[in-house]
Amino acid sequence: MPLLHWLTREEDIRCATCISYRLLEEVSEFSYGDQDTGNVLVQGDNLDALKALLPYYAGKVKCVYIDPPYNTRSAFEHYDDNLEHTQWLAIIYPRLELLRDFLSEDGSIWVSIDDNEAHYLKVIMDEIFGRSNFIASNVWQKRYSRENREAIGDVHEYIIVYAKRPDLFKKIRNLVPLTEEQAKVYRNPNNDPRGRWRSVPMTAQEGHATAEQFYEVVTPTGKIHRPPEGRCWGIAKATYERLLSEGRIYFGKNLDGQPNIIRYLSEVPGMTPWTWWPSVEVGHTDESKKEIHALFGKVEAFDSPKPERLIQRILQIATSPGDLVLDSFLGSGTTAAVAHKMGRRYIGIEMGDHAETHCMPRLRKVIDGEQGGISETIGWKGGGGFRFYRLGESVFDEEGYVSPGIRFAPLAAHLWFVETGSPFSGKADSPLLGIHEGTALYLLFNGVLGDRRPNGGNVLTSRVLASLPFFEGPKVIFGEGCRMSPERLKQERIIFRQIPYEIKAR
Predict the structure, then answer these.
(1) What pLDDT score was predicted for residue 114?
(2) pTM here?
């Protein structure tokens, strides 16, 4: 497969591995509402934040949406988007690598981009996510009016989509609601109490038809119909008779035409999504700016925010209520706000002061029931909550040692993740972190065994082993040292890993 090369490529593709694992520290006075909903807002550099979140959320995110800087050679108040091409690639590559690890098996990632970097992004995502996992390049009509100052009017952006497993994504992918334009073929000329309907031909190709699909149909006027040459009825006779008794067969205005099946608008679950997203369906930039102005006044902070209807369409397709959504370029907070209103859980990451000045206030307004964006159409009334976090100190210092003051719980989460590749969901109140694929993982660190000295019990001895929660099978034990002989370790089926030398930073 062709690869994209740039000046700092080798350094950039190692960047995600080299980033230090940092703590997440809750700012309780900024958290709001019901804080047990699982919604998280993180202030800090998104590369550091993604690394810190990975031990807890790897493989759990159903939908990642990001709207990264577009490299348009213009400067925003909160983003320096005037980046050289190499710098842009250096920013996007390691972040996409980390985001890939958050996706569930049926999860998908959606990336907004314009023509400046879209084609380079596609090549990079082919490399990181696999070319066979490409789903679509959706075209969003961001403008609806023409301007004569351009050689050719720029009226669209792309939303590039990849899935972890396209076969599973296809199974969970939801249909999109019909627009009124699409639904106009459904009418109710006879005032049917079941609502608007349309007639659908009852015939089908003869190909694999059974004998039950060839029979005579008698209209209310007595006229007899048989399937046309080369075709059959699309339903068996018993099904036809049931539909006829339910008033679901239409013979035309004169009651003697070919039989058609009546399909009610209320029975149509939706339409298969396609790649053309017109502004009339999902909003445009004027709409999104008005949403931002209604929330924050006439600010210039966000030059190209996305309308809530656009994010709603993505989440309609890719998620269901209760699923987890992640946006690591949260901007003005649109993704989190829409996910909240739609009953999805979310993780939002944003750097700089406006995580406090824009994202947090916007989500508080959502919880209080604000009626902008999609609120009215979906009946949003308020509720829920979120926790606010900032990035804390690194778990490891520059020499690779565990930093002073690191608590047992975050180190336990990190070790579990690097050892098993799965997120940590334990309580971190015992040296036995859990059992993975038949192997128990233990951590001896900072007095977890109840020793008087902070570092007591961090060395594996026969006495310490006897005090650990019992597990008969193989064991991996992390600690500062080991005073048991290799023969004894083998007998006890123990693999000992010394802190910090055998802790992988991933």
Answers:
(1) 93
(2) 0.83
